[in-house]
Specification:
It is built from six helices and seven strands, in the order βαβαβαβαβαβαβ. The chain is an alpha/beta fold.
Length: about 240
């Protein structure tokens, strides 16, 4: 009986892997055979995800880093290179929300925090990890966006701007890297039951779960070599 997993021998780097969507993605990719490299700002959260993975028989490496700091991502990439010699999957999931104030009342420091984490952090991660993929002539980069990057989001203009920007960045980087046999995709979930999502007036039982987003990522990394899904729009079956 063939017991091989679809990602055996591969290395998957997931940012924001300590909880929520990022933790679910890391667990899913590890269950598919990948060595999961868990990046995030809170070591205790990353260790909890790592325990889930190892208890299920998978492999996880914890690399604490802040995606807002380029040198920390460069250090993370150097550690992955030294430990594994490769990066096959990069999931840019780290993000912060901001759903309470109209733009004219948003503090400048909150604007900077949202844009720097959700958009600049993806640029930093791609800059740090893409060279390994280019060298290998293979790889998947998956950016976790949002339906807020497709639709208006009152009282969340900065968040929406970061995700609209992330979509444009992703489409453009996909064209830059296609010649290197690297696929760049976005996943745009609707309402997901996490700490990040605005829950006011919504029924959590009808919301997407982090595992739903992880399933979409799993579909992307198991595409046939000749196919390229550039984006997935993910909605709850029933409006919450």
């Amino acid at each position: 009986m063939d017991t091989r997993q679809p990602l055996d021998g591969q290395v998957a780097v997931v940012t924001g892997a300590g909880r929520g969507i990022g933790a679910a993605i890391a667990r899913k990719l590890a269950s598919m055979g990948a060595a999961a490299v868990l990046c995030g700002r809170t070591p205790s959260d990353l260790q909890a995800t790592a325990r889930d993975i190892t208890e299920a028989g998978g492999r996880a490496e914890v690399v604490a880093c802040d995606v807002m700091e380029m040198h920390q991502l460069e250090h993370a990439a150097a550690r992955v290179q030294a430990t594994f010699g490769r990066t096959d999957v990069l999931v840019n999931n780290a993000g912060v929300g901001g759903f309470h104030d109209p733009l004219h009342m948003l503090l400048p420091e909150d604007w900077e925090r949202i844009l720097n984490t959700n958009l600049r952090g993806v640029y930093y991660a791609i800059r740090a990890f893409a060279p390994m993929m280019i060298h290998a002539y293979s790889g998947h980069i998956i950016n976790i966006s949002s339906l807020a990057g497709k639709n208006a989001l009152p009282n969340g203009a900065a968040y929406a701007a970061s995700k609209w920007g992330l979509n444009g960045l992703s489409y453009s980087v996909a064209e830059e890297l296609r010649g290197h046999n690297i696929r760049v995709s976005i996943v745009c979930p609707g309402s997901v039951d996490t700490e990040l999502s605005p829950h006011a007036g919504k029924d959590p039982r009808k919301m997407l779960q982090p595992e739903d987003v992880a399933h979409a990522v799993a579909m992307l990394v198991t595409q046939a070599p000749q196919s390229f899904v550039s984006e997935i729009l993910l909605r709850p079956t029933q409006k919450p």
